[in-house]
Amino acid sequence: DAEGLGDVTVRILDEADSVFDAATTTGSGAFEATAPIEQAIVAELSGDGLVTVGFVGWSGGEDVLQIEPHTLIGLSTFDLMAWRTQFAGCPGADGDGPAVIGEVVFRDLADVETGGHPPANVEVSLVAETTVEACYLDEEGLGFDTSAESTGASGRFAIFDAPAGRADLRIDFEPVPGFTDFLMYPVYTPVDGASPWLPAYVDFVTR
């Protein structure tokens, strides 16, 4: 399991993207902060050696909201550079603009020994004022492929120079031959950062 990150600044943004509260994580990655009730809030994380990242969630109306472990994840500047290198040739990969990166996996399938979830072959786009199509890797998962139309065997996608702020991540997939479905996830990408989806989930069995 991933270890908690200490000394990370967590800023809670309200639905107008104004800072509502801020906190610093302990050595185990824990923090406490206040949030507005019943709003689509953002948790924005930043720290030394980290890319600023944002996550959207619904605050609800309870007095205490407990975030499940591993829901908020840090992304190092080194790791983001590795993604840019792997996707070299994708528009914006050689710059430093906002990025949306991720790996799509099946939520309801898992390896019996490792517990890992297999990658899903899907199409990904970012829907804001305009729609931006994602870049994908080649069949071997080694580098960007201009002709690839889906995530393929790696499940990976990337969107560089993404529009900053709020948007929706759209994942189109085919759970069974001849039947297509899609999911929409709310996204917040900091102007100087990234929105990491590691992983993003789809279901093998539709309900």
Could you report the average pLDDT, rounded to the nearest whole number?
Answer: 94
Unreliable residue runs: none
- Distance between the ends: 29 Å
- Helical fraction: under 10%
Describe the sheet with the most strands.
7 strands, mixed
Q: Strands of the largest sheet, in order across it?
A: 2-1-3-4-11-5-8
Task: Provide structural commentary.
With 207 residues, this protein is mainly beta. 5% of the residues lie in helices and 38% in strands. The protein is built from 1 helix and 11 strands, in the order ββββαβββββββ. The strands form 2 sheets. Strands 2-1-3-4-11-5-8 form a 7-stranded mixed sheet, covered by helices on one side. A 4-stranded antiparallel sheet has the order 7-6-9-10, with no helix packed on it. The relative contact order is 0.18.
Describe what is shown at a glance.
With 207 residues, the protein is mainly beta.
Per-chain topology:
Blueprint: E1 9-13, E2 19-24, E3 40-46, E4 52-58, H1 77-86, E5 99-106, E6 123-127, E7 131-133, E8 156-160, E9 165-176, E10 179-189, E11 193-202
Parallel strand pairs: 4-11, 5-11
Antiparallel strand pairs: 1-2, 1-3, 3-4, 5-8, 6-7, 6-9, 9-10
List the keywords:
about 210 residues; seven-stranded mixed sheet; globular; 11 strands; single chain
